[in-house]
Amino acid sequence: MRWACIWLLCPLGPLVLLSASTNPPNVLLIFADDLGFGDLGSYGHPTSATPNLDKMAARGLRFTDFYASCPICSPSRAALLTGRYQTRSGVYPGVFYPGSRGGLPLSELTIAEVLKARGYTTAMVGKWHLGLGANGSFLPIHQGFDHFLGVPYSHDQHTHYPQFGSQEYVGQSLRGPFGDALMEFDGSVGLLLQALQENGLEGNTLVFFTADNGPETMRMARGGSSGLLKCGKGTTYEGGMREPAVAYWPGRISPGVTHEMASTLDILPTLAALAGAPLPTVPLDGYDLSPVLFGGGKSPRQMMFYYPPSPSKLLGVFAVRYGKYKAHFFTQGAFLSGTTPDQDCHGPLTPHEPPLLFDLEADPAENYNLLQGGAVGPEVLRVVKEIQLHKALFDQRMEFGESQIGKGIDSALQPCCAPGCTPKPSCCHCS
After folding, report:
1. Is the pTM of this model over 0.85?
2. Of 70, 91, 248, 330, which sits with the fewest C-beta atoms within 10 Å of its C-beta?
3. Domain count of the chain?
4. Domain limits for position 167
């Protein structure tokens, strides 16, 4: 009940607990909502109070080049759970709403279902945002989770705007309401780590923390920070999809910082390998990160493909990262990034031929296009040609599933304390 209460009171979201009684490790996934690359103290924010996450970062493996699959919530969460780009499962365009007819298809195999084959008990606590459906048909309990405590769609609280802070934390941060919520998030992480220690589980539990997409910069101080990265939520610039991430497992994962490329797409294959569970017999887009986690080795991920919130087969991926280089074939701003002074963050859909090309090691803010003006060296020309080839092959091979969000809205599906009342949702207030 402690964890359930922590979740109900604090802005974690969602927390997924997977456990087994045999040799495979317990797994605790902590997935934050709308958290930017620059929001944590361990990632350079000067006034964030995040001592527990910073402790995890200091004693675990901190990633500098970790990506979500999409710059908005529902598609990103679908990709984490399935190890597949959201285009395959049909979780596009946009996000699910309380009355959405669709949801993550039950035919998709989630991390929970993969690990249950190895005897894991599974629980999901917090924000689901992958569909509700008639009679709760899309809820986590139908996707391999034994237990679910949370809300089925976006709660629009906690580090997600408008933030929630309990009495203990309100007014305690130098960052205002966002900082208060972030402090409470961090406090919850501390209680979870404490619970693992008190129950003798820390030595056999992998704790992995990351977030679903970048900050909602339209909220300014209440929307989070992408640090030095460009733009935020809703865009395929780095600020929309590059996330803080920490792998923590005392005695198994050595403390350090890795600049190897990785993604939420890689979590399912990695956990399957650790548990000795067979992978789903469908096309996967993730890789086993064990060489990075346990040996300081190279990541099997050498490329990242960036889809916008509303992808299309015609345009394909908007950007491709290949090693240290990133090419933008299309750029588009988002109202979610609408208050930033950089016009690119809220500009129109713009094709680029040749693509914009950035060196993310030297220019993580994507300010200096290597193909703009002056002589272009043979190395850069070679990279552009290789990236163009990889994009063409990836787009050609991608099979778009039927859009689940495109199935529309039925207000009768929205949970209501007064069934049949009108107008929804204002008539649904609970006593």
Report:
1. yes
2. 330
3. 1
4. 2-302
